Hints:
By secondary structure, this protein is α/β, with parallel strands linked by helices.
Amino acid sequence: MKPTSMKPLVTCLWFDGTARQAAAFYASVFPDARVGDAIAGDERGGEPLTVDFEIGGTRFVGLNGGDQFSFDEAVSFQILCETQEEIDYYWDALADGGEEGRCGWLKDRFGVSWQVVPRRLIELFGDDDPDVRRRVTEAFMPMGRLDLAAIEAAAAAS
């Protein structure tokens, strides 16, 4: 029988002994983020087996599972920003020690992929005018860190 309700999903992120550091890092970057409980692990060199943390009301579990798996771009987290200042803040914080990519994508120091995206870009992708969508796409595709003013200028061009 199908349940009638469901608790929120929890994302489990697999780390190689750095779950506690990752949780503390994310709590330092995101407003209203917090680190919760840790479950001790016997053979993990003093690192907990898991660490609970929360970002933006979403619960995560960092699992110190070992080196069998690593993160890749097949899974990423989008941060929808309202201003260039927000874009710059998240880009600078998350790219520090990580790897900058194209089109607003980056990997943080733990290898987790993020998309730092202005909400306005998503709106422009839904514009009724195909020329606006084309110009916006051509403008943002070569960018690393997204430039909201340049995207708006491309949308407004004729």
